[in-house]
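Researcher: I'd like a candidate sequence for this fold, 228 residues long. If you have to choose between options at a position, lean toward the conservative one.
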């Protein structure tokens, strides 16, 4: 499974990129607002992210458009910013024809806010390059986000869609990831990608037994030095 980072924070993106584990970046309006982003600077910010990660690493930039025509126009503009831009659109009646039109022009769409298998299947059929089912938000309402994810993964992987096959698409991005266990279970069920906020990514690096082992290692190493 590939790791994307779910952030608009350039320092976090740089650090994850330096770890050598980064296969993509996803952003959204809330994440951009969180770093104090302004609408006028949005496109420049996306370009900065694209430069940090390099042109082989997809960067999802979310459209603010609400009609099909606007989504297509904005999608074309965003895609022209850099070769690795992926246009992020929320699944809805307006975005399906927009996804279809953009796919036919060779522009990749990440269909987001997916909460069901039918939504995911429609996204794939319309030509989405990536499909983003949310996990944590199901947990927030007392549902089981991982079971919901598994349903989406199994349903989508049953079929071919005629789009993006040479690139291995459509790929499923596990989104709204909050914990290392979300990552573990997404990998076990065969989700292609997990997009993980930096704080959760850091949690994935750690384990209490690793941290304890490092403390013991340090203490033993001090003993060895004292013996020399
Ligand atoms: O990629 C979508 C993700 O950012 C949503 O996460 O934590 O707001 O549910 P969250």
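Model: Candidate sequence:
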């Amino acid at each position: 499974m590939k790791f994307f980072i779910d952030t608009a924070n350039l320092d976090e993106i740089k650090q994850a990129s330096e770890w050598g584990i980064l296969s993509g970046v996803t952003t959204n309006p809330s994440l951009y607002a969180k770093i104090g982003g302004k609408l006028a600077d949005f496109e420049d910010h996306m370009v900065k992210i694209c430069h940090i990660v390099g042109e082989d690493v997809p960067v999802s930039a979310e459209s603010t458009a609400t009609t099909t025509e606007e989504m297509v126009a904005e999608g074309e503009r965003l895609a022209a910013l850099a070769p690795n831009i992926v246009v992020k659109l929320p699944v809805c009646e307006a975005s399906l024809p927009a996804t279809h039109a953009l796919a036919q022009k060779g522009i990749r769409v990440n269909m987001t806010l997916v909460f069901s298998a039918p939504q995911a299947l429609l996204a794939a059929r319309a030509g989405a390059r990536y499909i983003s089912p949310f996990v944590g938000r199901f947990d927030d309402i007392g549902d089981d986000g991982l079971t919901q994810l598994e349903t989406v993964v199994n349903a989508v992987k049953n079929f071919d869609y005629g789009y993006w096959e040479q690139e291995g698409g459509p790929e499923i991005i596990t989104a709204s990831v909050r914990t290392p266990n979300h990552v573990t279970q997404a990998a076990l069920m065969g989700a292609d990608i997990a997009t993980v906020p930096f704080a959760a990514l850091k949690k994935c690096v750690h384990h209490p037994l690793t941290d304890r082992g490092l403390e013991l290692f340090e203490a033993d190493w001090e003993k060895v030095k004292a013996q020399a």
